[in-house]
Amino acid sequence: MPSGASRAICLMNEVFRASLDCDNQMPLRPGVLEALTRSLEEGGNPMSRSGRGLRARQRLEDARDMLSEILGAHRSEVWFVSCGSEANTWALERTVMRGGLPPRAVFVSPLEHVSVLSAANARSRREGMPVLSLPLAPSGKVQVDALRTLFPEPPFLVSVQWANPEVGLIQPIEEIGRIVQEKGGTFHVDFIAAESFVPVRFRDLPVDLLTVSSARWGGPPGIAALLLKRGGRILPLIEGGGQEDGRRGGTQPDFLAAGWESALRHWKENREEEMARLTGLTRDLSRWVVRELKDVRIAGERGERIPGVLNILVHGIDGQAALSLLDAKGVEVGTGSSCSRDSLKVSHVLSALGYPAVESQGSVVLSMGWSTTDREVLLFREVFGGVLDRLRSLAPALKSS
């Protein structure tokens, strides 16, 4: 039998876990599960003209209206898809350039999500144009001054994340967009990591396409949206019936849309408090890391970052091993992009930022969200030092094996 102190810790970890991997799975906001359940219980297909079908259609359109209101877009510019990766792929592979000609080139930053990089390369192979990297400053920020001479004659396509979920770096989207617009290009932005922090008016942005996702807002996974400026053209990625005005085939998940709308309502009511709390948690945790931990640094520390993301680089350890040991102690963290965790390769984001492999391999990513509490952060602080000591004690043995 464990001692009294050990038993208390065991009981604490059975009841309480710190969810600091919100990039992988943000907890559902209050009211979301109820909205999902009500919609599923009623049923109905949004394409049906029955009473239930019309009510399902209304749930879908209510979510579209709410999203367009929050993002400063016209409702006709909002197209529902299954996830952010689908929206990114659709934007990169199927957008029709001005004039209907194939793009001369596709430009992406080396920090982009794998869905953007893969879709850009797929279009390159199909249409025979190059995929080129946007230059980065040492801070990780796109070098805006270099773009006027970098971009070719139109048409061309550019895709940049507003904020990177792995390190939190914010890009100067409006500056980039103005140059793309001046040069006659088409500009896509993955807004997912920044969507609950950065207020926007899509109608006023020099951006042609914008990717957003329910899950990052604390809504249900399985639904996202691509915003396309009025006047823009895009070919279907999924052929089917008349769903989404014929642009995206497949049954529309009205129950997921209802859950997303519920999450957006909760966010609207609490966004100022959440922003202030996450900013404080991130600041205090960053200071603790720098003050208390040895041989570590914070990725992207020289650039402007969104709150809630902290990528701690620990020299000489394995990030996956740290994740497992922390999980055993009741703390969920990440290591690298949520779409690359099955890969043992070093993060392409950290490599692009110039971090050596011996540091990048020891990446421990904390992503906090609307529900993150002081108690969760405190539990991480209490156990992380011991996890590092354990892994560092194994390092000599690992090197000699």
Low-confidence stretches: 1-13, 337-343, 397-401
| SSE pattern | HEHHEHEEHEHEHEEEEHEEHEHHEH
The biggest sheet, with number of strands, parallel, antiparallel or mixed sense and barrel status, is:
7 strands, mixed
User: What Rg, in angstroms, do the CA atoms define?
Assistant: 22 Å
Strand percentage, roughly?
5-15%
* Helix amount: 40-55%
> How would you classify the quaternary structure?
single chain
| Secondary-structure content class | alpha/beta
- Terminal CA distance reads 36 Å
Mean pLDDT over the full residue set: 92
* Silhouette: globular
Extended strand count: 14
| Strand order, sheet with most strands | 2-9-8-7-6-4-5
What is the helix tally?
12
Q: What does this 3D model show about the protein?
A:
It is a single chain. By secondary structure, the protein is of the alpha/beta class. The chain is 42% helix and 13% strand. The chain has helices at residues 4-15, 32-42, 51-71, 84-94, 114-127, 147-150, 173-183, 254-292, 319-328, 348-352, 357-360, 374-400, and strands at residues 18-19, 78-81, 95-96, 106-108, 131-133, 157-161, 186-190, 209-213, 224-228, 233-234, 296-298, 309-314, 331-332, 363-367. Strands 2-9-8-7-6-4-5 form a 7-stranded mixed sheet, sandwiched between helices. A 3-stranded antiparallel sheet has the order 11-12-14. α9 packs across α12. The longest helix has 39 residues, at 254-292.
